[in-house]
Amino acid sequence: MTVPTLSLAYRPEIFTKFPHLIAAQSLRHGGVSPAPFTSLNLGLSSGDERKNVLENRNRFFNNLGFQPEDIALSYQVHDDKVLVATQPGNYEGYDAIVTNSPGVFVGVSIADCTPILIYDSSSNAVAAIHAGWKGTMKQIVSKTLQTMTQHFGTNPVNCFAYIGTCISECAFEVDADVADYFTSDYKRWDSEKNKFFVDLKQANFSQLLKAGIPKEQVEVSPFCTVEHNDNYFSYRKEGKKSGRMFVVIGQRTNR
Where in the sequence is the signal peptide annotated (predicted)? Predict the structure, then answer.
């Protein structure tokens, strides 16, 4: 499977049956940022020039069909807090955002951590989740679905989900201080490298299924930010000068 090298975004197939829905994960192409942020860097805290990032955001959001002022974003802290957004804006301290308001788009920023998008086809609620190893360990996916149930009456059986491109198991090597938080289902020991390897995609996939989302209603990206670094940013591979990607989801107002 290949990603078109000049695309600004990948649009998950799992959501294409819902024409009123906009959902996407950005790629690294089509922006104005010079090396080392080449080129569609969307992260204001990455060290890139602000004017470049704002232009990149304009290009990305306009390409999807909405404006930067239509999105709710948060400064993420690798925790398990979930924001219920009723209007767009910039927030702080949340790693998941949910809404059921048409015209309000929710998104998270990633560079290796696992992005998850959820759509409730019954209530039209949506969620964007940033799940690093800490958020995964703290069950942020499960807590997001619980929040959707509490506020929107969500039944997971009606939900569709996308686990986006992140660092894959083959590249996510960690020491015991991280690996100890995960069961053997989601990690393996490599005796040659003397490291553990953790599978964040599988760990979050299991949370979605345990919450009640049918397996056939979940799409998992086959790509890896490290292995497919030509299309995706990777903090693990590129270091502090890595750009940032967005995953976003929301309902059009002109349904």
Answer: none
